[in-house]
């Protein structure tokens, strides 16, 4: 009993930590995707960068909107030209568009993209040293010179180049840290994926007909009789013995 309570407590603690984390990531993703139009995409898989445009808004204004939607793990100091918001699996860089100063570029980078394209020394002016040390694995990563979408022509990213987003890109949620390759099975009225002799499929609404069939015959008295070995035995009256008045049942 004590073991069961301990196991239940561990599950509760795990869910209490995971659910808020998923809610936070989903909140910032949906806010960015639903609020700002997607302008450019770079990279693929776990190394991706999505750039959105916030028209007619300053960097601090956009930062305030995103923080209200989902609180980041760390936020850089308020600035008019550039700010960073750090979440569990992505970093959001807010940049004033030099070609259209009234707009803000919202760049959502996966942590793998940051590790392989940014310079650690560049980010030191915005983020805590302890966070950068963990992000770049104590200097193992961070050999790039990239500084953001607004400077992409001068400080080019190592992971591919930016391109116009496709229809699929616009439907996708901003970068994930892993490449998902799982399969989803949908229940269908005519789905069939049974094995021979299984008698049906777990994805089918109705089971397939069984290969084996039974037969019921009736005798001359009209009573039904099964031809299968599963037919119940006929019960017989117990034998009696004359003597001391005792009744014994046949063994």
Beta-strand content:
15-25%
Rg value? 34 Å
Structural class: alpha+beta
- Element order: H for helix, E for strand: HEEHEEEEHHHHEE
Query: Please, what is the oligomeric state?
Result: single chain
Into which percent range does the helicity of residues fall?
25-40%
Question: Main sheet: which strands, in order across?
Answer: 1-2-6-5-4-3
Low-confidence stretches: 14-25, 176-189, 191-208
What do the pLDDT scores average to? 76
Q: Please report the number of helical segments.
A: 6
Distance between the termini: 45 Å
Number of beta strands: 8
* Shape verdict: elongated
Largest sheet: 6 strands, antiparallel
Biased composition (Basic and acidic residues): 166-190
Pfam families: DUF4247
InterPro entries: DUF4247
Protein name: DUF4247 domain-containing protein
Description:
The chain has 251 residues and is of the alpha+beta class. It has a domain at 7-171. It is 27% helix and 17% strand. The protein has helices at residues 2-35, 59-69, 111-117, 120-123, 129-135, 167-171; strands at 38-44, 47-54, 74-75, 82-86, 90-96, 104-110, 216-218, 224-226. It has a six-stranded antiparallel β-sheet. Strands 7-8 form a two-stranded antiparallel sheet. A hairpin with a 6-residue loop joins β3 (74-75) and β4. The chain is elongated, with a radius of gyration of 34 Å. The two termini are 45 Å apart. The relative contact order is 0.11.
Question: Which key phrases capture this entry?
Answer:
251 residues, alpha+beta, six-stranded antiparallel β-sheet, two-stranded antiparallel sheet, 8 strands
